[in-house]
Amino acid sequence: MKSKNTVIKILAELCRLLIGVVFIFSGFVKAVDPVGGAIKIGDYLTSFGLDKLQPFTVLLSFNLSAIEFALGVCMLLGVYRRYVSFLVLVFMAFMTPLTLYLALFDPVSDCGCFGDALVITNWETFYKNIVLSAAAVTVFIYNQRLFQCFTYRAYWFVALYAYLFGVGFAYYNYNHLPVIDFRPYKVGANIPQLMEIPDGAPEDEYKYSFVYEKDGVKKEFSLEDYPANDSSWTFVESKTELIRKGYETPVAGFNIYNGEGEDVTDEIIRNPGPVLLLISPKLEDADDERMDEINSVYDYALEHNIPFYCVTGSSPEAIDTWSDNTGAEYPYRMADEVLLKTIIRSNPGLVLLKDGTILGKWHYNDIPAEEDVKAVMDGCLDGQRIKSKEDVALATNLLTFTVPLLLVWVYDLLRFRRRRKEKK
Length: 424
What we know:
- By secondary structure, the protein is an alpha/beta fold.
- It has 3 domains: about 1-175, no CATH class; about 205-245, no CATH class; about 265-380, Glutaredoxin (3-Layer(aba) Sandwich).
- The chain contains 13 helices and 8 strands.
- The strands form 2 sheets. The chain has a 5-stranded mixed beta sheet with strand order 6-5-4-7-8, sandwiched between helices.
- The longest helix is centred in the last third of the chain and has 40 residues, at about 385-424.
C-alpha cells in the first residue's frame, strides 16, 4: 500500500511539473510576441467565420498568454491545487478536440501554441495535447498530494501576480519589439544566406500516378507501369502526392518591388552600405505619432547618402493619403503584407540593413531622436548594441517577476515557522 502511494505521488508530481513547465513556456513565448499571437488568433477567427471578433484579437492574445502563464506558475508552485487542476482540465478539454479538428481539416497551418519559438504540426499538437490531457486528469484526481511552495495565505498574491505579470509582459512587448526574436529576421541575420539552399540538402519527394480508362473502367498506374504505348487506354488525369518534405529555407518569398512592379530586392539586400527601411504592412493602420522622429531619421539618411525606403503592402491610394497626412517625402517600395509583419512587429517599424544583414530594428515607440541618430547607427554597426538592449530588457522582466515571488516566499516561510514555534 505504501509502495502504491509512493508511485501515485511520483506520477502526480511528474504530471504537475510537465503541465507547469509547458504552460509557463507556452504563455511566456506568446507574451514575448503578442502581435504574432493576435495574428494567429485572427487566422482562427477567419477560419471559423468569426470575423466580427477581429477587433479583439490583441486583447485575446494578451489574456490567453497571461492565463496560460498564471496557470503554469500556480501548477508548478502548488498554488490553489484543486481549482487550478480543475481549470487546467477544462482548458485541455477544450483545446484537445479543437486541435483534433485542426489536424483533420487543417484550417490553419499550425496551431501557434508555442508561437514562433517552436513550430509544430497540427498532428504533433494534437498528440501533445493528448499527453497533457492525461496529465491534467492525473493532477485533478490527486491534486491534494501535490507539493506546495507557499502556504494558503500567500496563494492570492502568487496567482494574481502571475496573471498581472503576464499581461504586463505582453503589453511591454506590444509597445516595443519582442525581447526575444524567434523569427528569421532577427538582428544579425543575413537575408541572402537565409534564402540559400545548402549543398546536399534533401529535396521534396513526390509520388506520381496516372489514371487511365479502358472499356469504362478506370485504373491508376504508377510512373513505371503506366500504359504509355497502349492506345487502348485513354488518359484521364495525373496525380501528384508529396511523400517527404525537403529542406525549407528559413526565408522564402522575400521580394520587394518599385512603383513600376520591377523587382528591386537585390538593390536593397545586396547593397554594401547601410540601407534604412521604414516597414509598414498597412499604412492605413500605421501609427503616425512618431512621424517627427521618423522624418528626422530620413533627413539624416539624405544628409549622409544612405538609401531610405518605406516598404509597404498598401495600395497607391493609401500611400498618397499617408504622404498627404504626414508630409512624408521618402520613396516607397512594395512587398507582401505577411512578409512585412514577419520582419518586424511594429507598424511602422524601422530596419537597418547592410549587405543584407539586419543590423538594427526599432519599434515606432523607440525611434531615436534626431540628435541621437548618428550615435545609434554607429553603435549598432556590429549589431551588439541592439542585442545588448534586448538582453537587458529580458533580464529586467525576469527579475521583475522572480524577485517579488522570492521575497514573498521567504516572508511566507518565516511566518510559517514562527507560527509553528508559537503552537509548540
